[in-house]
Amino acid sequence: MRITWTVLCAAGIALALCLNPSYSAAHSSSKYHKHSTSRSVTQKASQHRVRKSRSHRATANVSPDGKPRLISASALVIDQEAGSTVYQKNSDRTMPIASITKLMTAMVVLDANQSMNEMLTISDADIDRLRHSSSRLRPGTTLSRRELLQLSLMSSENRATSALSRYYPGGKRACVIAMNKKARLLGMKNSGFADPTGLDGDNRATAKDLVQMVNAANNYGLIKQITTTSHYLVDAAHRAPMEFRNTNALVKNKDSNNWRIGLSKTGYINEAGHCLVMQAQIANRPMIIVLLNAQGKYSGVGDANRIKKWLERTSYGHNNAARNTAMVTASAN
Length: 333
Description:
The chain is an alpha+beta fold. The chain has one domain: DD-peptidase/beta-lactamase superfamily (Beta-lactamase, 3-Layer(aba) Sandwich), CATH 3.40.710.10. It is about 45% helix and about 20% strand. The chain has helices spanning about 5-20, 20-60, 100-110, 145-155, 160-165, 170-185, 205-215, 220-225, 250, 300-315, 315-330; strands at about 75-80, 85-90, 95, 120, 140-145, 205, 230-235, 240-245, 260-270, 275-280, 285-295. A five-stranded antiparallel sheet has the order 2-1-11-10-9, sandwiched between helices. Strand 9 and strand 10 form a beta hairpin. Helix 4 packs across helix 5 and helix 5 packs across helix 6 (about 170-185). The longest helix has about 40 residues, at about 20-60. The protein is globular.
């Protein structure tokens, strides 16, 4: 009879159990210990890979000079008080600016000194037939000029903006002429406006020019108030109240972040990508931020957060904190 190796092994194990009952427990404990050690090593290796990945991402977001790498194709950050450039990327490149245009529209509308309480009616002429953007403002909706300005700036409502320009003295064409005239007065040498909404891709400017526009808009109290409002309820006749929200996530969620935003406007069309301009306090300094042509819905917001963190963590923020402490000490003496 041939006895296989497996049978011999089984017999040996059975004999060992008879002679030493603790063998099974010891053998099982040894197997568990080896498995536990292996699992611990695997977990440590996994944690190391995660830390390495995070470190790589952090390094990838920083350029060799220590400044953040931004997704936006063009960017400019200006210390508003000192008038100095804090960060720049392709700031001389002329680009489509989409609904950032609405800031200029708002300024010329306010410059016309028309009554904010006058009731204006949305018409078929305000429907977007270029890009077919949607709107909850149906033709026939009547709102005050103040309310239409609110929706134009806060929610980037194209029909509201179109109506504002139609009721401008001389009509829409006169409004666009006034916008270009004001751009020249502000020193926006590389800018041009073709329509009041920003839907036309020929509305173009450089980041440097937009700093001038944001700086000017920052002098209009109503524009500052409207663009930093998170939401607004419209009570249109014969319809249930409609809630409109700010298109800037940093303003919309301002209660859950540490941003101190004084003015804001977003914009998007295919040619322009996602655009964002803001006036904000960062490291206790007034800053103007211009971000153009970011690919990805929240890329502009991400770039703004990267800029803010960089300024707060670097010598700029530390030096400014020291400067403020010195000023307080001096005034106390």
